[in-house]
Design goal:
This protein has 409 residues and is an alpha/beta fold. The protein has twelve helices and 18 strands. InterPro entries: Adenylosuccin_syn_Lys_AS, Adenylosuccinate_synth_dom1, Adenylosuccinate_synth_dom2, Adenylosuccinate_synth_dom3, Adenylosuccinate_synthetase, P-loop_NTPase.
Length: 409
C-alpha cells in the first residue's frame, strides 16, 4: 500500500486486479493520518489519480461503501474518482457466512481465511452461478439468481438457515445499493485499454503476496485468486505486452497470517521481538502475524514467477538492535540432499531443513535515515546480500510506516 501511495502521483490510474476486502493496505496522508484500505486502491489520497477496481476483484458492496464513507468523512473526495468493473463479481454476506461454516467444518486443518467470504465468492464465480456488478442493472432477474446462491448454501451446510424472507430482504437492500453504485460502474476493460492507447500511465496494485497465489502459493493455504503478475492481465483485461516494470514488495523478514508451512518461522521470544517491533498484526483480521527470517528460497521463486525488475524492501528498521540476522539461503531434504527448487508438495516443504547465512546486525535506529549511504554498513551489507542472492536490485527501502520513511537506492 505505501509504495503505491508514494508512486501514485506519477501515474494517471491506480488499479486493483484481484482479491477483495481480504487485502489490508495501510497508508498515511501528508499530515500522518492513517488509512486502512481493503478494496479501494491505495492511490485514492492523490486527487489527480483515477482508481480502478478491475474485473478480477470481488466486491462486497456494503464494505465498499463503508470504505468510501470513511474516506469522505476524513476529507478524501471519491466522487468520479473510483471505477468498478461491470464484470467484477459481487460478494454477498452469505459468502461470508459460508466462509465461517467452511472453516468450522475443517476444524483442525482450517486454512485460516480472513472470513471475508473471498473463497466462497470465487467458488460461485468458477461454478458459474455468481452474480456480477452488471447484474445490478437487471433487478428483474437479480432475485432469481441470488435465490440459486442461497439454495446452494442451504443445501451444502446444515448450519445455513434460509428463508424466502431473507431473499426478499436482500433484494430490497441491493436495489438501494444498485442506485448508489451506478455512478461507479464502468466497462473498465475499455477504459484501461483506451488509456493505454492515450499513453496514460497505469500503476497496478496487487492484493496479496505471491505465496498466497492459488496456483503458485502454498496450496491449499492460499487465497482464491492470482496475486502474482499473471493476475494483472486476467484481472484487468490488458495484454501482456503492455506491462512494463514489475516491482516486488518484500519485507526485510518473513511474515504469514493464518495456517500453512513456514520454514524460517521464529517461534517463542525471537518471533515475539519481530512481531512487536514490526507491529505485525493483520490489517484485515487483527490476528498476530507469524514472523521469521527472510526466506531467500521462497523469494527467488517469487522473482522467477513474476519477473520483478526491482524490489521494495520494507521494514528494514524493524531489524535494528538485533545482534545478528539470518537469511534462509537453501533447503535440505530430510536425507540431507539439497532441494533445487521451491517445493510444490506441502509434506516436503514442512519437513525441509533450512540452511542459514548469518550476517552481523546493527544497533542504531535507522528510522530517520533517508539516504542509502547513511545506513549503517551492516544494514547496507544485508540489502546487498539479498540482491546478490536473488539477482534482482533493491530500489526502494522502507524504514518506517510514514510516507516519507523511504530510501531510494
Amino acid at each position: 500500500g505505501k509504495l503505491v501511495d508514494v508512486l501514485a502521483p506519477r501515474f494517471d490510474i491506480v488499479a486493483r486486479c484481484q482479491g477483495g476486502a481480504n487485502a489490508g493496505h495501510t497508508i498515511y496522508n501528508s499530515e500522518g493520518k492513517k488509512f486502512a484500505l481493503h478494496l479501494v486502491p491505495s492511490g485514492i489520497l492523490h486527487e489527480g489519480t483515477l482508481c480502478v477496481v478491475g474485473n478480477g476483484a470481488v466486491i462486497h458492496v456494503p464494505g465498499f461503501f463503508g470504505e468510501i464513507d470513511g474516506l469522505q468523512s476524513n476529507g478524501v473526495s471519491c466522487d468520479g474518482r473510483i471505477l468498478v468493473s461491470d464484470r467484477a463479481h459481487l460478494l454477498f454476506d452469505l459468502h461470508q457466512t459460508v466462509d465461517g461454516l467452511r472453516e468450522a467444518e475443517l476444524a483442525n486443518s482450517f486454512i485460516g481465511t480472513t472470513k471475508r467470504g473471498i473463497g466462497p465468492c470465487y467458488s460461485s464465480k468458477v461454478t458459474r452461478n455468481g452474480l456480477r456488478v452488471c447484474d445490478l442493472r437487471h433487478m428483474d432477474t437479480f432475485g432469481d439468481k441470488l435465490d440459486v446462491l442461497f439454495e446452494d448454501a442451504a443445501a451444502r451446510f446444515e448450519g445455513f438457515k434460509y428463508s424466502k424472507g431473507m431473499l426478499k430482504e436482500e433484494v430490497e437492500r441491493y436495489k438501494r445499493f444498485a442506485e448508489r453504485l451506478e455512478p461507479f460502474i464502468a466497462d473498465t476493460v475499455h477504459v484501461l485499454n483506451e488509456s493505454i492507447r492515450q499513453k496514460k500511465k497505469i500503476l497496478v496494485e496487487g492484493g496479496q503476496a505471491t505465496m498466497l497465489d492459488i496456483d503458485f502459493g502454498t496450496y491449499p493455504f492460499v487465497t482464491s485468486s492470482s496475486p502474482s503478475a499473471g493476475g494483472i492481465c486476467t484481472g484487468l483485461g490488458i495484454a501482456p505486452r503492455v506491462i512494463g516494470d514489475l516491482i516486488g514488495v518484500v519485507k526485510a523478514y518473513t511474515t504469514r497470517v493464518g495456517s500453512g508451512p513456514f520454514p524460517t518461522e521464529l517461534l517463542g521470544e525471537e518471533g515475539d521481538v519481530l512481531r512487536k517491533a514490526g507491529m505485525e498484526f493483520g490489517t484485515t483480521t487483527g490476528r498476530p502475524r507469524r514472523c521469521g527470517w527472510l526466506d531467500i528460497v521462497a523469494l527467488k521463486y517469487c522473482c522467477d514467477i513474476n519477473g520483478f525488475s526491482s524490489l521494495n524492501l520494507t521494514k528494514l528498521d524493524v531489524l535494528s538492535g538485533l545482534p545478528e540476522i539470518k537469511l534462509g539461503v537453501s533447503y535440505n531434504q530430510m536425507d540431507g540432499e539439497k532441494l533445487q527448487s521451491f517445493p510444490g508438495d506441502l509434506d516436503t516443504l514442512e519437513q525441509v531443513q533450512v540452511n542459514y547465512e548469518v550476517l552481523p546486525g546493527w544497533d542504531s535506529d535507522i528510522s530517520s535515515v533517508r539516504s542509502y549511504s547513511e545506513l549503517p554498513q551492516a544494514a547496507r551489507r544485508y540489502v546487498e546480500r539479498i540482491e546478490e542472492l536473488v539477482g534482482v536490485p533493491v530500489h526502494y527501502i522502507g524504514v518506517g510506516p510514514g510516507r516519507d520513511a523511504l530510501i531510494y537506492k
